[in-house]
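HUMAN: Mind sharing a backbone?

ASSISTANT:
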Amino acid sequence: MAAASYDLALTRLLKDEGGYTDHPSDPGGPTNFGITLADARRYWKSNATADDVRAMPQSVARTIYRERYWNALRCDELPAGVDYAVFDYGVNSGIGRAGKVLRRVLKLSDRSSVVSDDVIAAATKAVPLDLVIAICAERLAFLQSLKTFPVFGRGWTARVDGVRVAASAMAQNRQPAPGARTPSAASGKAVVPMSIPAGPASAGAVVAAGTATAVATSRLEVAAMVVAAAALTALAIFLIWRWRSRAHQEAAVMPPAERTSNGLG
């Protein structure tokens, strides 16, 4: 299958993730090579600190990616290109979401996120290029629904576009062009905010949250439009009143004949 894709996929991923970051809007917190403090504690040092994450050797990140992401998503058994698309999605948004999306685009139940034997079987029968395009489309739609998209959106969009292009080439047995470092904002973790109820949120829940925000925003915009319209109406009434007042004042000092010719008599 696509075991040989790993080195290429990991090289591109590490370039996108970059080095140490601790962006205040990133739910991942202190992160190095894309490995968050939570993952460092889970898979490396149980008492790891932000300083430990900063000093973490890249070899640790590579081991975590191989065992906890690539292997967990059974990428060695997925078609070339699909493996990279799923792997990068899992690192950026969690293997649970990546597994669910893979199942969904294969027309399997997404109540589970497990990449099971039936998932592998369905993936081997599908057109790899179609899967890559579908996975990346779902991924971008999910990213755009997140509250942190205004902060990290430019980098995330560039990253997904880069993954789609490279994975498409891999799916067609072509060598992808060397990956360029995407904007630094790409390193932010694209996960559902903690304010949403615990557990992996469904895409529907995320969209619903986004819709509620959009409705609230629309109401504010409508209110602002009403206020602006009222202000313009008041201004128009004032200007008409002022013009009529001046006209009558001028008419008061006009000779009778001139008032009649101006329609003010």
Observations:
- The longest strand covers residues 31-32.
- The mean pLDDT is 79.
